[in-house]
């Protein structure tokens, strides 16, 4: 994100403060505008979420990031695809699990996950399957992380693997694409529709262009059609009348218990 885009977004937030500013992007903290965005958003009265990959907390220059986040009461949603080291290594590479645990302990040390500041973890299954029940998985995570590492957290959020990007390529290479899409279609759950994130959340790209969700952004499916619409070109009343752009990948969000930026949508 460049300076012009960042400051346009800051101005928009100050003019139309949203309830939540949810910051993502792999490691969004690497951007020079991450901390200014947090400060502007908190100053506008917004609840701020940082989608944190945990390993950033050990990178040179980010040793005090956990203190900044705590000072500004930023909610943390952290990626930890499994509580077993071997599975995390398979998904994210060797050494990531240990670095993630050290990151969680740093967050615990400033009050995250300990009743003071919210710390949530994210789970997604390994391969072409749906996540198990969120409540049961959360209990497994809680017991394993506390017993083995002394880590505390608030909630576990389960996400369904989206049939896009690298995962879609892997499915096709293994001849599993059609079976996975059939699994999602057969598991369609109408009870998830009311809570789908595209109905209440907008994705703002790094150039300020708008999408209905993160996954539409990855696919280049712009809000309301092919022509990009930029955040500073519209107000909330304008986009509330626009149709949601959908595709086959949307089946992942509405399968089983549902999947959204806040985890499962049904019990």
Number of strands: 7
Per CATH, the class of the largest domain reads Alpha Beta
Number of helical elements: 10
The computed structural class is alpha/beta
Q: Using the 3D structure, state the CATH architecture of the largest domain.
A: Alpha-Beta Barrel
What's the alpha carbon Rg, rounded to whole Å? 19 Å
CATH superfamily of the largest domain: Aldolase class I
Q: Provide the low-confidence segments as ranges.
A: none
Instruction: Give the overall pLDDT as a whole number.
Output: 94
* Overall tally of structural domains: 2
Main sheet strand line-up: 1-2-3-4-5
In helices, the fraction of residues equals 25-40%
Quick one: overall form?
globular
Features:
TIM Barrel; 2 domains; 36% helix; 267 residues; alpha/beta
Describe this structure in words.
With 267 residues, this protein is an alpha/beta fold. It has two domains: 1-159, Alpha-Beta Barrel (TIM Barrel), CATH 3.20.20.70; 162-258, no CATH class. It has ten helices and seven strands. It has helices at 3-15, 34-43, 65-71, 85-92, 96-109, 134-149, 165-173, 177-186, 214-219, 236-239, and strands at residues 20-23, 47-52, 75-79, 119-123, 155-158, 203-204, 210-211. The strands form two sheets. Strands 1-2-3-4-5 form a five-stranded parallel β-sheet. Strands 6-7 form a two-stranded antiparallel sheet. A hairpin with a 5-residue loop joins strand 6 and strand 7. Helix 1 (3-15) runs parallel beside helix 2 (34-43). The longest helix is centred in the middle third of the chain and has 16 residues, at 134-149. It is globular, with a radius of gyration of 19 Å.
């Amino acid at each position: 994100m460049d300076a012009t885009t960042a400051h346009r977004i800051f101005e928009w937030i100050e003019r139309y403060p949203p309830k939540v500013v949810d910051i993502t992007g792999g490691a969004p903290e690497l951007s020079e505008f991450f901390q200014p965005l947090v400060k502007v958003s908190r100053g506008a009265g917004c609840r701020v979420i940082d989608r944190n990959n945990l390993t950033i907390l050990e990178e040179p220059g980010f040793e005090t990031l956990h203190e900044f986040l705590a000072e500004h009461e930023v909610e943390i949603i952290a990626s930890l695809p499994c509580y077993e080291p071997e599975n995390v290594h398979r998904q994210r590479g060797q050494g990531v699990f240990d670095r993630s645990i050290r990151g969680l302990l740093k967050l615990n040390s400033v009050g995250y996950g300990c009743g003071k500041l919210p710390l949530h973890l994210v789970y997604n299954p390994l391969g072409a399957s749906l996540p198990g029940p969120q409540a049961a998985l959360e209990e497994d995570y809680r017991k394993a992380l506390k017993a083995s590492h002394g880590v505390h957290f608030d909630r576990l959020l389960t996400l369904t693997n989206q049939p896009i990007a690298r995962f879609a390529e892997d499915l096709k290479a293994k001849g599993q694409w059609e079976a996975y899409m059939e699994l999602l279609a057969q598991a369609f759950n109408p009870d998830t529709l009311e809570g789908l994130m595209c109905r209440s959340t907008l994705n703002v790209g790094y150039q300020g262009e708008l999408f209905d969700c993160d996954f539409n952004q990855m696919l280049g499916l712009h809000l309301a059609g092919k022509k990009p619409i930029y955040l500073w070109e519209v107000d909330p009343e304008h986009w509330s009348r626009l149709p949601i752009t959908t595709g086959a990948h949307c089946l992942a969000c509405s399968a089983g218990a549902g999947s959204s930026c806040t985890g499962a949508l049904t019990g």
